[in-house]
Amino acid sequence: MDIKKMHEKPPYGMIAILFFGAFVAILNNTLLNIALPVIMNEFQVKPSAVQWLTTGYMLVNGIMIPASAFFVQKFTNRRLFLTAMTLFTIGTALAVFAPTFGLLVMARMIQASGSALMMPLLMNVMLVAFPIEKRGSAMGMFGLVMFTAPAIGPTLSGWIVEHYSWRTLFEIVLPFAILTIVFALWKLKNITPNTSVKLDVFSLVLSSIGFGGLLYGFSSAGDKGWGAPVVYGTIAIGAIALIVFILRQLRMEDPMLDFKIYKYPMFALASVISIVLSVAMFSGMILTPLYVQQVRGISPFEAGILMLPGAVLMGIMSPITGKLFDKYGARVLAITGLTITVITTFYLSRLELHSGYYYLMALYTIRMFGMSMVMMPIMTNGLNQLPMKSNPHGTAMNNTLQQVSGAIGSAILLTIMTKRMEKSGESLFKDAAASGNIPADKAGMAELQHTIGLEAMLDGINYSFLIATFIALAALILTLFVKRVRPPKYEEMKSPATDDSIKAKTVQG
After folding, report:
1. Burial letters for 65-78: b for 16+ Cβ neighbours within 10 Å, e otherwise?
2. Major facilitator superfamily (MFS) profile domain: which residues (predicted)?
3. Which of 274, 300, 415, 453 sits at a 20 to 30 Å CA gap from 191?
């Protein structure tokens, strides 16, 4: 396909199909989280077992996303999307009728094998379909899908689980998934360039063990504790496999995941900022519901409503931020957004036992507004510096690092919260004993323990938010070094022979 002609008239219909497929996949993943207790009761499984519905999904993502660079280069975008969407649909259908818990876990893993390929594929199609000076707007629309689905998921799921069977969560997704395949067969064309790359099986094994081990280890730490052999064992094995994997990729002529892209300074800086920001973002998504439900005693559905405006605003702002990025660049947006994020995160570290519902909603919404100005502009600015043939590696790297940093950040912040909570609880009980406020009767003791538990948890959450404030501040400082990538001229971009020699120039801004 003629790139110049496509840049003049991008294939919006085709991109809409890809957007819808990605939206359905992300929505399905966020729908299930609230339904886990109901599924646990129906199949009579323990909490550690039911977590495999999310852990298994995440592990397959950890294996498939790093390999997505190979798949995007090897296969046409039409074939890859239809394969991914078919796998997702088969998994969804299997989940609707799954008679046993084991089969349900298998269904989720089949779903994941399809959905893991959709996001990197969609990003690559947009990087090819739009000229570099319009990528901000395009990636802004991508952000709309990326943030709106998680926004709708928990609230919709809470309402469905309250009124219907958990299987309805899969039943409502299935017809949309089938419809996406039908439209894709009719409308989808091939636009991404393909090369005859060969899959290095040993690299795939190392990548699977490395990223999978880290994701599983850090995600299990909150439930099993850092001292559990399965936690530190899988983290250690994952880290060793990852080091061997990176060294192997650096020596290969056609690597599965090209780490040489880190020679481009703005891409490298964008990766570091995205990692730091993912940790800060996940902190709010985990700590806020904990405070709302455990400390304030608000129902899961109302907790979902509280977080909904922030997530919806983030989705609405994404295309607006994209247009602003095209006009002003990433630096000014990121500095503004991260300043808002730092201030609001700090205020979240000063919550009280009876902080108002609407105060919390406003604070969380403003924080999400700030974050909406950072992630996509920073990532797009970094990707703009890569030559076109490196786009699959850049998108695969970004998606993988977000998954891993989110899991690691969540585990570390939850550990910080737990340790602080234990220390605070012991201190509060000692203070009560020293002042002679220990009740003699069981009812009084139970009430005291409950009060101390709430105050200790509040202190743990506030302390974790304070750590998250410093993490966001670190991202803000790094953003000061961001330079705007100047788009190379079309004549420079269109020649494959000069692709390696082109380095997008940077200007301050």
Report:
1. bbbbbbbbbbbbbb
2. 14-487
3. 274
Q: Which residue has the higher pLDDT, 472 or 439?
A: 472
d(Cα 130, Cα 380) in Å, to the nearest integer? 12
Asked if domains 1-196 and 262-509 share a fold, the reply is yes
**506, pLDDT greater than 70:** no
Q: Show the tokens assigned to 472.
A: 């966001």
Distance from C-alpha of 81 to C-alpha of 482, rounded to nearest angstrom: 34
pLDDT(86) > 90? yes
DSSP state of 298: -
Q: Is 326 in contact with 136 (CB distance < 8 Å)? A: yes
- The yes/no answer on whether domain 1-196 falls in CATH 3.40.50.720 is no
Q: Is the distance from CB of 150 to CB of 30 less than 8 angstroms?
A: yes
Are 51 and 36 within 8 A, CB to CB?
Answer: yes
Top-level class of domain 262-509: mainly alpha
Given a cut of 60, whether residue 438 has pLDDT beyond it is: yes
Both tokens assigned to 322: 């994209």
Could you tell me the residue ranges of all domains in the chain? 1-196, 200-255, 262-509
